[in-house]
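Database export, one record per block. Field names are fixed; values are copied verbatim from the stored entry.
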Amino acid sequence: MIACAFVLLAVVQVGSEAIYGRLPVQIGVRIYQAIDAVAPADYVSDGLAMTALRHGDLDAAEHYAIAMPAGPRRDDLLAQVAQARGEPVLAREYYFAAADVVAMQRAIAEVARYNLRDAEQEQAGFRARLIALGTHPDAVAESYWLSGNYAAMQHRYLEGLSDDEQALVLAPMNMAYILSAANNAYQGNDVRAAQRWFERGVAVDPGGGDAYAGLGLIALRAGDRARAQAYLERARAVDPHAQMIPALAAALR
């Protein structure tokens, strides 16, 4: 009995090594198919579905994915099948159900290439799902920030600022979110908020030049060229490659 168990484990090990690339894949497929015929298991269906996907056999991939119990992994596999078939809407529905953050954000970014409003709606719906799950605070913060980006692309800067501030409640030290909030406030003519967020940027990352350059733009808007020039020099000293330096330098000419 023990000997049989060892033999079975050895066969499964050989199949797994073949399925995941260490041995010829067809060996693994045959072993997994044999196991599937007599004792179906989730890991077998998963391995066969992934192998079928890699080889472009979408019908087989779908067959094995459907055989798995309902859950995120099944949804993720079905999303990949739909994506490979050129069905992006269906793929997003499955990625949404799976709460696959990376894949879903990639899919929403594709929507944003053609329709920013639709991307915002997709983002809001996915964010609500993540909040309901209660296990993705960093992903929720990123979702707010991305919504802010989409709003800013449509020149709705103060709405973008509101989204950025929601992101910063969850991730108060994130410099990307801080600078986004500051820039949206500046573009939306909320100079006081812009100054507050650029000052927060200096406090969080004194070695970053963008926040100093932002403060220089605010000083220049107030008519204080000397202070703006000082901020430009400070920005260049700490980070000569900061993205906001050219804007301040051009404004000072």
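Remark 1: The chain has three domains: 12-98, 99-197, 206-253.
Remark 2: The radius of gyration is 26 Å.
End of record.
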